Amino acid sequence: MSTTKGETEPVTIRLAPKGPLIVKNLERLQNSRGEAIASKPTIALCRCGGSANKPFCDGTHAKIDFSGENTADKGADRQDAYAGGEVTIQDNRFLCAHIGECTDNLAAVFRLGTEPWIDPDGADGQAIMETIRKCPSGALGYVFQGAAYQEPQGEPWITVSKDGPYFVRGDVALDGVAWSASADKRRYALCRCGASANKPFCDGSHGRVEFQDDGN
Predict the structure, then answer these.
(1) Nearest to residue 120, comparing CAs of 81, 79, 80, 83?
(2) What mean pLDDT value characterizes the chain?
(3) C-alpha 213, offset from chain centre
(4) Which of 128, 122, 163 is CA-nearest to residue 144?
(5) CB-CB contact of 125 with 86 (8 Å)
(6) Measured between alpha carbons, how far is 105 from 103 in angstroms, rounded to an integer?
(7) Are 74 and 180 contacting, i.e. CB atoms less than 8 angstroms apart?
(8) Greatest Cα-to-Cα distance within the chain, rounded to the nearest angstrom
(9) Please, which pLDDT band fits residue 76 given cuts at 50, 70 and 90?
């Protein structure tokens, strides 16, 4: 795609077959502490979990016969709604990366071990909306005053989370992927442990396989 003077090239992610994430034109790549990671116009980010040079690919995917196949149960891809006095909370468990931003920061609303697990009147509307906007996978959303929240346009950036997925924010095009109908294409989490059934998206399997990356 050509650009005129003053414009920047779009940021894109392409899935290499049985290989890494090929990222182009990304200027902001950071670790979990917000520290910049040196980048290039084109980089290959490991998604098999085995690279010795994380977050970058070192070719290990070929040695371990990594498969990027999505084996998730598509029947579980549904969005539930919890209507409250101020805000209706939307939740799609199929997209959840199990990072815990919601349960850790607003336990009165997002209640582990309780059914229903969401109480839309457990806190004031502003606190609920602020917490949902921190959800890195886009599994959580909300409707306020008749309008559904969508991540606004903004600077594209990727965070390499601590022992977890890549958090993608902003206008980053993920090419060749079948999206959930309720997905937020400016807010999503990509697997880097290699174990997710919902590849290329994270499904929380990094916790199950005890994935570790000491550099982040």
Answers:
(1) 83
(2) 94
(3) 17
(4) 128
(5) yes
(6) 6
(7) no
(8) 55
(9) very high
Structural domains in the chain (count) = 1
Convert the pLDDT of each residue in 85-124 to its tens digit: 999 999 999 999 999 999 999 999 999 999 999 999 999 9
Q: Is residue 121 part of a domain?
A: yes
182 belongs to a structural domain: no
Q: Decide if 133 contacts 139 (C-beta within 8 A).
A: no
The predicted pLDDT at position 40 comes to 95
Using the 8-state DSSP alphabet, how is residue 104 labeled? H
pLDDT tens digits for range 127-141 = 999 999 999 999 999
* Residue type, position 111, single letter: R
Give the closest residue to 161 by CA, choosing from 132, 192, 140.
192
Q: Give the range of the structural domain holding residue 117, as residue numbers without chain letter.
A: 74-148
Query: Element (H or E) spanning 126, and its range?
Result: helix 125-133
Q: Which residue has the tokens 């958090």?
A: 167
First to last CA, the chain: 33
pLDDT at site 7: 64
- Specify the residue for token string 């999505």: 70
For residues 6 and 50, give the distance between their C-alpha atoms in angstroms, rounded to a whole number: 39
Domain-located, residue 211: no
Q: Is the pLDDT of residue 27 over 80?
A: yes
Q: What is the CATH number of the domain that holds 94?
A: 3.30.70.20
Query: Would you say 151 and 169 are in contact if contact means Cβ atoms under 8 Å apart?
Result: yes
